């Protein structure tokens, strides 16, 4: 006759339960977080500089309004390159492993960002300057396009099933952390350099990327390949070209994942790119705007982890649909606050749009997208959906909104409609996808 389990037996069972609190998992999560933070430091640094610097340094001869538009075009180029980076790194990540691609993407990003910091202005080398800027932005886009998929999959494929959302949030949370670092660095050197900000002050944060990349490389080289990929390798099955596999077997997951993710990127661009530019042009203090942007990114970071944990409990779909609907209700108030020319108005707008709405969308999205694909093509499929959304939602949004503002004579109603449609389209896409929290990755 079997006896009832003792307290010691129960303790042993509890201890054996899968956990994120192990030495290996802590290293993996730290690698995903720090690596993503460094790469997004580089990428978001460019976005902020596109709002405040590049229109004056590389496109000053185009005239008011058009110089900013041209600067945003170069910003879009990086987002256009992200799906290409996702396909390239996804292909080799699905065939050779996640870890190798993560190390390579970080190295490429660091070289591209450092080169931007060394680029002479148009006044010195003419049209070669903006052309080189576009090429280096393409390099950044390819690198960050490969970064997200690898970082997210390293976390997800190592994590226990019931903690996948929270684990994946470490890769995503690197984005706001990188935004905080990049924004504060630009704000610091704007204050230090004063009137020389457009001469040399803006360059220092770009050059600091070289040091950050060394730190990130050291951390990433210590992380092991994911168990899911190791099992795929051990199975020895003949694998197709990942892109063809995705397009044949998972096209719906790509399209719906892209639409679901687009709303997050639209929120990001509206608040942290276009919003920064319009707030400064409306009369808000530049340094104050940058500091508030950094504080809002900190809130995004906190909400990201909270919403990811919540998605592990109640499901990714509920969190994402709730956040999109909340955002649609808040769109017009956010726009009014953002454009009132007061620092407090910008602060309220970015706290609501960037901190709250974007934070709730951001937390579950990595796990949500990755769970829609099988191991053999997960890097490619998830990257294609996520980076396609970045191209549409973040790459084109600043240009679209600048054009809608001109078409509406400076009014906000066309911009509000655009933003609301993006959020509602995301809601519908999420509603049409299956819940992935209980799905077995392999």
UniProtKB/TrEMBL annotation:
It is found in: Cell membrane. Residues 28-434 form the Major facilitator superfamily (MFS) profile domain. It is a multi-pass membrane protein. Pfam families: MFS_1. Keywords: Cell membrane, Membrane, Transmembrane, Transmembrane helix, Transport. One of its GO terms (cellular component) is plasma membrane. InterPro entries: MFS, MFS_dom, MFS_trans_sf, Sugar_transporter_CS. Its main location: membrane. The keyword Cell membrane applies. It comes from the Bacteria. SUPFAM superfamilies: MFS general substrate transporter. GO terms for molecular function: transmembrane transporter activity. It comes from Paenarthrobacter nitroguajacolicus (Arthrobacter nitroguajacolicus). The chain crosses the membrane at residues 28-48, 68-89, 101-119, 125-145, 166-190, 202-221, 253-276, 288-307, 319-337, 343-363, 384-406, 412-432. This is MHS family MFS transporter.
């Amino acid at each position: 006759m079997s006896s009832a389990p003792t307290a010691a037996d129960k303790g042993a069972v509890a201890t054996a339960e899968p956990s994120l609190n192990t030495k290996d998992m802590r290293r993996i999560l730290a690698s995903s977080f720090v690596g993503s933070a460094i790469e997004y430091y580089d990428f978001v640094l460019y976005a902020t500089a596109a709002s405040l610097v590049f229109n004056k340094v590389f496109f000053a001869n185009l005239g008011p309004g058009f110089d900013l538009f041209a600067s945003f075009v170069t910003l879009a180029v990086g987002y256009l390159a992200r799906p290409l980076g996702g396909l390239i790194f996804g292909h080799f990540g699905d065939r050779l492993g996640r870890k190798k691609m993560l190390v390579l993407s970080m190295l490429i990003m660091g070289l591209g960002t450092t080169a931007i910091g060394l680029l002479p202005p148009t006044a010195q080398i003419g049209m070669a300057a903006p052309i080189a800027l576009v090429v280096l932005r393409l390099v950044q886009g390819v690198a960050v396009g490969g970064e997200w998929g690898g970082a997210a999959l390293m976390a997800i494929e190592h994590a226990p099933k019931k903690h996948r959302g929270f684990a994946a949030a470490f890769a995503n949370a690197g984005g706001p952390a990188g935004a905080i670092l990049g924004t504060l660095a630009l704000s610091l050197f704007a204050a230090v350099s004063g009137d020389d900000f457009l001469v040399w002050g803006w360059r220092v944060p770009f050059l600091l990327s070289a040091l950050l990349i060394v730190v990130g490389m050291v951390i990433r080289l210590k992380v092991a390949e994911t168990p899911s990929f190791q099992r795929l390798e051990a199975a020895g099955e003949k694998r197709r070209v990942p892109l063809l596999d995705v397009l044949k077997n998972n096209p719906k997951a790509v399209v719906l994942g892209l639409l679901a993710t687009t709303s997050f990127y639209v929120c990001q661009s509206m608040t942290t790119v276009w919003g920064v530019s319009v707030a400064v042009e409306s009369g808000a203090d530049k340094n104050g705007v940058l500091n508030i942007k950094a504080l809002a990114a900190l809130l995004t970071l906190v909400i990201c982890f909270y919403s990811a944990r919540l998605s592990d409990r109640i499901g990714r779909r509920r969190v994402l649909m709730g956040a999109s609907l909340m955002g649609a209700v808040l769109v017009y108030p956010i726009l009014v606050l953002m454009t009132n020319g007061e620092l407090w108005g910008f602060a309220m707008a970015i706290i609501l749009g960037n901190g709250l709405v974007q934070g709730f969308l951001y937390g579950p999205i990595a796990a949500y997208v990755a769970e829609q694909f099988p191991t053999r093509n997960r890097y490619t499929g998830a990257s294609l959906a996520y980076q396609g959304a970045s191209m549409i939602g973040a790459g084109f949004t600043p240009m679209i909104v600048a054009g809608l503002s001109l078409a509406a004579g400076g009014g906000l109603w066309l911009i509000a409609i655009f933003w609301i449609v993006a959020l509602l389209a995301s809601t519908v896409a999420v509603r049409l996808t299956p819940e992935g929290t209980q799905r077995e990755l392999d």
